[in-house]
């Protein structure tokens, strides 16, 4: 069972130094990968590259970089630079984004699945051939010079935070894997894994990676953990793509999908995701009750086999 962890920068001190230190702790606990979500402060691709360069035993990735207001040439240029810096241990996670993108950048959140198809098509060409000649409805990707970073190779994993049927179909056809979050085991098994792998098979490809992101906190104070999860995860209740998978699982709110409790309870919960078809699990929200509980969580789960 492959386990990774989603990291957040500490609230004080130097953000980069702090998250590198956290990544070292995660590795020591037995976790094998570190993932950075894209926010409105740090740059996730850059930060993943720094961590991967500092800690050569750890795989790194983004979870995930929204494609709206970003051009494939620029994103792939960043990603290939980091892939070379980490000697092949970087994984590029992309996201469709949400109305938050429109609010932040003034770019209409329109036709996200169509944009995803064009973004993935051109991104794959850039990675595998070092160039692209894409002239679509929504994107033009035609660099006038070779777009190759020596040392990056041609096998950069491109992953998508896809959960809806249309996005899953495009991801199965064109991406290397998906990054579902708040999709519980039943939803994963019935509504996500079969759809994305059917699309991959129809495209003549092998099954894709299913990297499930799972909120997990090992604690004796279950009520405090639940309250913290409600406060931290409430935003997801308002975003339609997350609302859909929450309801598919039969849950009322995002916090209901968090695994909170004893080490045995959380370990059993994580195993259910693997049983449902996840090829990897990434632990998220492990800092809900502070750094001490986060360490306990990592140490309790790092040796899960």
Automatic annotation (TrEMBL):
It comes from Gordonia rubripertincta. GO terms for molecular function: oxidoreductase activity. Coiled coil: none annotated. Its EC number is 1.-.-.-. The keyword DNA repair does not apply. Keywords: Oxidoreductase. SUPFAM superfamilies: Bacterial luciferase-like (SSF51679). Residues 11-279 form the Luciferase-like domain. This is TIGR03564 family F420-dependent LLM class oxidoreductase. Pfam families: Bac_luciferase (PF00296).
């Amino acid at each position: 069972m492959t386990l990774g962890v989603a990291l957040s920068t500490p609230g004080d001190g130097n953000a980069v130094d702090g998250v590198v230190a956290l990544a070292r702790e995660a590795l020591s606990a037995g976790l094998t990968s570190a993932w950075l979500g894209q926010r409105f402060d740090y740059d996730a691709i850059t930060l993943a590259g720094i961590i991967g360069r500092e800690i050569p035993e750890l795989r790194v990735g983004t979870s995930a970089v929204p494609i709206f207001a970003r051009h494939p040439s620029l994103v792939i240029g960043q990603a290939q630079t980091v892939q070379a810096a980490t000697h092949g241990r970087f994984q590029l996670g992309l996201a469709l984004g949400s109305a938050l993108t429109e609010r932040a950048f003034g770019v209409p959140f329109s036709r996200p699945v169509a944009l995803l198809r064009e973004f993935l098509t051109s991104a794959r060409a850039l990675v595998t051939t070092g160039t692209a000649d894409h002239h679509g409805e929504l994107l033009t990707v035609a660099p006038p010079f070779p777009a190759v970073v020596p040392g990056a190779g041609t096998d950069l994993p491109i992953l998508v935070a896809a959960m809806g049927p249309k996005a899953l179909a495009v991801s199965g056809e064109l991406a290397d894997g998906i990054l579902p979050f708040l999709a519980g085991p039943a939803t994963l098994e019935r509504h996500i894994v079969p759809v994305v792998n059917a699309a991959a098979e129809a495209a003549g490809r092998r099954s894709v990676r299913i990297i499930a992101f799972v909120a997990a906190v090992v604690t004796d104070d279950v009520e405090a953990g639940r309250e913290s999860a409600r406060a931290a995860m409430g935003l997801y209740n308002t975003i339609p793509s997350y609302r859909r998978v929450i309801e598919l699982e039969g849950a009322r709110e995002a916090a209901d999908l968090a695994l909170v409790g004893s080490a045995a309870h959380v370990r059993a919960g994580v195993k259910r995701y693997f049983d449902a078809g996840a090829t990897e699990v990434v632990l998220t929200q492990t800092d809900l009750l502070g750094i001490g509980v986060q360490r306990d969580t990592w140490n309790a789960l790092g040796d899960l086999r």
